[in-house]
Structures are given as structure tokens and as C-alpha cells.
Amino acid sequence: MHITLITITTTIIIHLVMIFFLLSNQNSFGQQDNHAESWIIGESDKLNFKYPSNWSVNVSDSRFDNYELLFFDLSSNASIQLSEEAISSMNKILMGNETQNYMDIYMMSNSPLSSTAKKIETYPKGKVSIAELPAYSELYLDRGFAVLISLAFLEGKESHYTIIAASPSYLYDNVEPTMFEIITSITTKTVQKPLD
Questions:
Q1: Which of 89, 113, 139, 195 could, after both became Cys, cross-link 121 (CB 3.0–4.6 A)?
Q2: pLDDT by residue (tens digit) across 110-152?
Q3: Can you tell me the distance from the alpha carbon of 138 to that of 128, in angstroms, rounded to the nearest whole number?
Q4: Do residues 131 and 47 make contact, with C-beta atoms less than 8 angstroms apart?
Q5: Cα–Cα dist 159/87, whole Å
Q6: 39-188 has which fold?
Q7: On the CB side of 79, how many CA atoms lie within 13 Å of its CA?
Q8: Long-range pairs, 127-133, Cβ under 8 A, ≥24
Q9: Which residues contact 67 (CB under 8 A, 6 or more apart)?
């Protein structure tokens, strides 16, 4: 009886040590992953955002540029381009709120994809928010790259933010969490009204 009690106690202690070891390793990995690089706070005329220090960001300063923000990570060859585009008057109205049709119209004249691109996934409007706005997104595989194209609709649906995020498909699972965190960190700047 005494030997059985010692065996049970020893087994419990061994299991507790193993659980503690596994949990401490998980935590240290999580900390390492979350704090591997510091995050930088940035802003453009219209948006606030954050990005890791190992990424570069270019903020457009010309009205002739077709983007507002361009993020790039040299080590993974991943990029995020964010632009604000006014859709021509014939394309402004969403027929029955059909975001799929809206994306199709946009893609017909603005597609950054090749003719061999394959659609992998569709994310309905509102499932993801970008710049605090409901967005419609489609994920494509194109020439070895995973390309996420999103439209975030502004009030009145007269214009939208277009976000094109791309990374080599074999790196997508590793890079995507960072890209998603960058994209979801983008928020519209609140305009301060002058004090009376």
C-alpha cells in the first residue's frame, strides 16, 4: 500500500513537471513570437496604422500615386498596398448590395492578377473590417503568390479602400498573421473639430 502511494505520488509529480515544462516552453515561444520585432506606429493624412520594424512603409505624398500606403517586407517578399479610389459613376451603385458583382466590375478594369490566377477563398462583406469599415475579400493563388484583394466600402459606397496583400504562397501561413495584424491595425483618423 505504501509503495503504491509512493508510485502514484511520483507519477503525479512527473506529470506536473512535464505540464509545467510544456507550458513554460509554450509561453516563451509565444513571447518570442509576439515580441520578435518591435511595432512602429505610423500615420498618413487619412489613416493610422502600425507595422513591424522589419517591414518598410512608404506613404504617398503625390495625388498622382495610385496608393496611399505601401508596406513591404524584404525578407519574405510580402507586400501590402492600400489605395483610396473613387469608382466611376456607372460603377458606384451596388445592385442589391451585391459586393461580388462590385468586385467583378472592379477587377475587370483594375485586376493586378494574371489570367492564370485561381480563386481560393471568398470572405463575405462584414466578416473582416478594414480601416473600421466592412470589407469584402477574395484570396487568389497567382504565379506562386498568395494574393488577398479586399474592398473596404466607405459611407455612401461612392468610393472604397482597395487593399492588395501578396506573399509567396509557400510562406503565406507564416507571413499571413503579421499581414493580417497590419491590415486590421489600419484605422481612419478622427478629424478634430476646432474649439470655439
A1: 139
A2: 888 999 999 999 988 767 677 777 788 999 999 999 999 998 8
A3: 11
A4: yes
A5: 6
A6: Protein Transport Mog1p; Chain A (3.40.1000)
A7: 11
A8: 128/184, 129/184, 130/161, 130/163, 130/183, 130/184, 130/186, 131/47, 131/161, 131/186, 131/187, 131/188, 132/187, 132/188, 133/161, 133/188
A9: 60, 81, 82, 83
